[in-house]
């Protein structure tokens, strides 16, 4: 039994009117780049699943303490929401069990995909990009919500596949962000590219990247369904009068306790070979031959300027 499966893991649907669901949805809406009505008029939340893994929580707290000892400013220690679109239930489960890990994938915009992970910081942009990519109008989109810390950030110029170059993680920093902020008048593709954050962590002084940056931890899965032409305007989200943007430890513990009497509804593990698409995670076959082929065609690695 490995360290991920040795702790109790909970994945359970929660009442949409609960404190936990309300605060997660509030964080989702607060993250929007565009006016909320542009998304809430088109999409509705139909289910929210609580994701809890005690091991990730401990490591997240340890990483925050390390950042504090290193003298990082308060805004560098602040907790933010990040999002990725999951293409299947199995991938939601995999993210819960193993966290967001580095792996071969097409997205190398702010850093090399096998050295760090990308998140989208604007939930509406992530949702719209996923909907555009799947092309399934009226179908359901699942977003996995994470909490993360930027740490020390470095602004870099994003690269595209045609550049045939990738950006190496920057020693002395914990995150790359785009050098241009996203704007409401940008195209969706530019909004998505400029809404990304690239997180990484080095294992030791030799700058070996770790498989899963501890400054990022999964929180919940949001199931959103496109509204059909009902002609009825949606009700605005009702938020609790609280200063916290994240479910408190007491709220999470209480919810976990109420669910502990039931066996966790976690399906069997999916195949380990998983890759991430521009809008999130997609399953893919991965063999040694494929890996060798990918490695033989890797573009030039360059350092961030």
From TrEMBL:
GO biological process, any: male meiotic nuclear division
A Pfam family matched in the record: DUF3715
TASOR pseudo-PARP domain: residues covered: 66-218
Name the record gives this protein: DUF3715 domain-containing protein
PANTHER family: TESTIS-EXPRESSED PROTEIN 15
GO terms under cellular component: nucleus
Source organism, top-level taxon: Eukaryota
């Amino acid at each position: 039994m490995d360290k991920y499966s040795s702790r109790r893991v909970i994945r359970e649907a929660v009442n949409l009117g609960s404190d936990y669901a309300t605060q997660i949805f509030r964080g989702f809406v607060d993250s929007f780049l565009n006016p909320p009505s542009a998304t809430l008029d088109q999409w509705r939340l139909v289910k929210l699943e609580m994701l809890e893994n005690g091991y990730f929580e401990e490591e997240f707290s340890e990483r925050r303490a390390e950042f504090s000892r290193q003298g990082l400013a308060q805004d560098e220690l602040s907790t933010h929401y990040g999002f990725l679109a999951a293409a299947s239930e199995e991938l939601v489960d995999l993210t819960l069990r193993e966290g967001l890990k580095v792996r071969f994938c097409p997205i190398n915009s702010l850093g090399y995909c096998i050295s760090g992970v990308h998140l989208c910081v604007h939930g509406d942009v992530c949702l719209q990009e996923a909907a555009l990519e799947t092309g399934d109008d009226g179908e359901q989109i699942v977003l996995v919500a994470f909490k993360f810390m930027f740490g020390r950030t470095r602004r870099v110029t994003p690269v595209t596949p045609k550049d045939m170059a990738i950006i190496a993680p920057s020693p002395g920093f914990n995150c790359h962000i785009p050098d241009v902020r996203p704007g409401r008048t940008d195209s969706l593709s530019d909004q998505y590219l400029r809404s990304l954050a690239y997180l990484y962590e080095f294992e030791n002084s030799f700058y070996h990247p770790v498989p899963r940056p501890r400054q990022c931890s999964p929180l919940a899965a949001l199931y959103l369904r496109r509204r059909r032409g009902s002609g009825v305007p949606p009700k605005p989200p009702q938020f609790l009068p609280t200063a916290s943007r994240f479910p408190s430890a007491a709220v999470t513990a209480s919810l976990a306790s109420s669910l502990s009497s039931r066996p966790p509804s976690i399906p069997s593990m999916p195949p380990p070979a998983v890759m991430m698409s521009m809008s999130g995670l997609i399953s893919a076959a991965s063999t040694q031959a494929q890996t060798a082929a990918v490695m033989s065609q890797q573009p030039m690695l360059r350092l961030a300027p």
